[in-house]
UniProtKB/TrEMBL annotation:
The gene is hsdR_1. Residues 45-113 form the Restriction endonuclease type I HsdR second RecA-like helicase domain. The keyword RNA-binding does not apply. It comes from Lawsonella clevelandensis. Keywords: Restriction system. One of its GO terms (biological process) is DNA restriction-modification system. The lineage of its organism: Bacteria, Bacillati, Actinomycetota, Actinomycetes, Mycobacteriales. InterPro entries: HsdR_RecA-like_helicase_dom_2, P-loop_NTPase, Type-I_R_enzyme_R_subunit. This is Type I restriction enzyme EcoR124II R protein.
Length: 160
């Protein structure tokens, strides 16, 4: 998050109720010092979840560590960046977070940093109602870097 805030300092606020970007994670006083600003009380995490679900809130980017993968429903959510191995039903539930219908949202975008493509194809073969898995865009590394480094606002309506 430090790198993002360095590039976009106006997105950050130390106040949990303000800012366009937040980190949601659990932890304790024994966690590394770099984690401490992001370890919130249960009530603060609940409020962050409410903010994330509210399409009128200024909160646009939430970096989540081991939370909100299943059972979290925010239809306005558009993009998810995945950086941990997942498979089967857990993978399907996780990617479904961005595939909720909402107003004129065209669909969700999953940015895969670790190569979940085959796991996703396998999960679709098991859990998809269609007899043949759907076609998925699978960019090469150069395309991934281009998307990751594009100078785009999270609200521009295009993949960032």
């Amino acid at each position: 998050m430090k790198k993002i805030v360095t590039l976009r300092p106006e997105w950050h606020s130390d106040d949990v109720a303000k800012g366009k970007i937040k980190v949601v994670m659990t932890g304790s006083a024994a966690a590394p010092a770099s984690f401490q600003p992001h370890i919130h009380s249960k009530d603060e995490r609940r409020n962050l979840k409410l903010r994330a679900k509210n399409p009128d809130d200024e909160l646009e980017i939430v970096i989540v560590r081991d939370m909100w993968l299943t059972g979290f429903d925010a239809p306005s959510l558009h993009t998810m960046y995945v950086d941990k191995p997942m498979q089967s039903a857990g993978l399907m539930q996780t990617i479904a977070r961005v595939n909720r219908r909402f107003k004129d949202k065209p669909g969700g975008l999953i940015v895969d940093y670790i190569g979940l493509f085959q796991s996703l194809q396998d999960a679709l073969a098991v859990y998809s109602p269609w007899p043949k898995p759907m076609h998925l865009w699978h960019p090469d590394q150069k395309q991934k870097r281009s998307v990751m480094t594009s100078d785009c606002s999270p609200t521009c309506g295009q993949p960032c």
